[in-house]
């Protein structure tokens, strides 16, 4: 019975209704892309339909959907309609599914048959089902990040860093490495992890049908603290506040303490010592030690010490800062020098130092004006002491001891200066007299 009905319908479609102007298509049928679950409508515009009939066929299966206003398919989601002029004919598909994808034909039962075709693409926009990987790894180890995505058509998956422009280091099978902003594939293999590789990673899935989707995973790298002294040599002023600073990079975040060397341990917190820590980001901390009402007894070497679980059973990592007493103002000229002491007005003064160049041979007649002395505001005689880090690697700081010239030495410097000035004047006096007589 079913086959007989189908044969009858095909015969009806092929019947030539009579003479006259034949129908013609006014517009092309458009292609449609729609997400699963959306409604779809194909429209076929025909003129001079008269007694001809419109049929709808799914091309890839040759299944008849409808003839005229009668639905033939058993798919309850399919319906047809037309306007009052019988020019616009519509095929409606509700709640589109993936198996609805394909070409649909609008046919007119002319001889030969005329038709137009439109394509329906039912898609599933990308969706990331799962993203997995370790949250924390130790510096130097490896990690694998995996991302599972779905969609129709199947989406392309790639990885990139959360911060725009940051690159991912990839190790090739031949042992070489390369850096890329984008790495394709659902699995990201990271080797020889370094602290610079810590941070957010994005898995992005796209199948050409917007929107693309992404999910984030945080990967942290554990490493020993790295301490940097902001200023290795700091001057303190009597009665004022001295400020020592260091920056510590570590993960997990390190515990930071301040200790003064060469004396029993004294906690650098409370009283005149106030420590403040500022978290600059997930890995970096700035520690500030404020020493209020500074005195000369506060001079010395200070260690900014840090420790986390990566160096819990070993020595701390130190940043060394030398705190010295500063002289606040500068007085004096080439005619004399001043020692660092308070005047009657309460001002603090600073020495001018004269350095005698002792390698000059006074028995030889000078061919040019020699440089017999120089002056500056820094002590000329210094002794440097350099200490090693707790691990014994390299110099982490320096200590400078200044030797002040005694008053007798400063007086001798002034006398020598005046003596040589007189010698230069007497040496040039005969030449001046001759020039005056000659001219």
List the helices and strands and how they pair.
Blueprint (H helix, E strand, L loop, with lengths): L1 H13 L9 E2 L6 E4 L4 E8 L6 E5 L4 E5 L2 E2 L6 E5 L5 E6 L8 E7 L5 E19 L3 E3 L4 E10 L3 E6 L6 E4 L5 E4 L2 E2 L2 E4 L8 E8 L6 E17 L3 E4 L5 E10 L3 E6 L12 E7 L4 E8 L8 E8 L9 E9 L27 E4 L16 E4 L5 E7 L6 E8 L4 H32 L1
Parallel strand pairs: 2-10, 11-19, 20-26
Antiparallel strand pairs: 1-3, 3-8, 4-5, 4-9, 5-6, 7-8, 9-10, 10-12, 12-17, 13-16, 13-18, 14-15, 18-19, 19-21, 21-24, 22-25, 23-24, 25-26, 27-28, 29-30
Descriptive overview:
The chain is mostly beta strands and 439 residues long. It contains 2 helices and 30 strands. The chain has helices spanning 2-14, 407-438; strands at residues 24-25, 32-35, 40-47, 54-58, 63-67, 70-71, 78-82, 88-93, 102-108, 114-132, 136-138, 143-152, 156-161, 168-171, 177-180, 183-184, 187-190, 199-206, 213-229, 233-236, 242-251, 255-260, 273-279, 284-291, 300-307, 317-325, 353-356, 373-376, 382-388, 395-402. The strands form 7 sheets. Strands 2, 4, 5, 6, 9, 10, 12 and 17 form an 8-stranded mixed sheet that branches. A hairpin with a 5-residue loop joins strand 7 (78-82) and strand 8 (88-93). The longest helix is centred in the last third of the chain and has 32 residues, at 407-438. The chain is elongated and about 130 Å long.
Summary, kept brief:
The chain has 2 helices and 30 strands.
Search tags:
439 residues; mainly beta; eight-stranded mixed beta sheet; 30 strands; 10% helix; elongated
Strand content: 35-45%
How many individual helices? 2
What is the number of E strands? Answer: 30
Stretches where pLDDT falls below 50 for ≥5 residues?
Answer: 1-19, 329-403
Q: How many strands, what sense, and barrel or not for the largest sheet?
A: 8 strands, mixed
Indicate the multimeric state: single chain
| Radius of gyration from the alpha-carbon trace, in angstroms | 46 Å
Residue-averaged pLDDT: 78
Helix content: 10-25%
Distance between the termini: 146 Å
Backbone shape: elongated
Which structural category fits the helices and strands? mainly beta
